[in-house]
Amino acid sequence: MAVIAMKCPQYRVTVTDMNEARIAAWQTDDLPIYEPGLLEVVKAARGRNLFFSTDIRAAIRDAEIIFVSVNTPTKTFGEGAGRAADLQYWERVAREILRESQSTKIVIERARCRSRPLRPWRRFSTPTRTEFISK
Question: Fewest CB atoms within 10 Å of the CB: 24, 32, 74, 83?
Fold first, then answer.
């Protein structure tokens, strides 16, 4: 998201997370994740058009495009346990987007597999950026 903010200064990018400590870290030079060059990219856009917030409801209402990145671990229970992706976190986010949206949204899912929790709700367009994670 930081690269989008840096390359497209005409757009406001708001990164939201329910974890207050993680959001606080994004607002410092001690970022919560390490990626070579990321700190410089964040510094270039932070406060200009890159913002960080725990107010997920407001972010959903204000957004036109929502890029969702949630954990999809392997299921440990039920059908598909040990093999299938556990989509409970994705489904929780999908329900919150539906509940808080007051206009049409484009929802982009970042996942290791294609989930489909938004499919029943026609108000959303859900392109996928599937990532294959290798060990």
Answer: 83
Full-model pTM: 0.75
Instruction: Encode burial over 55-67: b for 16+ CB neighbours within 10 A, e otherwise.
Output: ebeebbeebeebe
Q: What is the secondary structure of 37-83 as a DSSP string?
A: THHHHHHHHBTTTEEEES-HHHHHHH-SEEEEE---PBP-SSTTTTT
Q: Are 120 and 81 in contact (CB under 8 A)?
A: no
Helix (H, G, I), strand (E, B) or coil at 135: coil
**d(C-alpha 97, C-alpha 16), whole Å:** 13
In degrees, rounded to 5, the angle at the alpha carbon of residue 82 between the alpha carbons of residues 77 and 87 is: 65
Q: Are 41 and 4 in contact (CB under 8 A)?
A: no
| Region label for 132, one of left (φ > 0), alpha (ψ between -120 and 50) or beta (otherwise) | beta
| pLDDT tens per residue across span 54-104 | 999 999 999 999 988 887 788 888 888 888 878 888 888 889 999 999 998
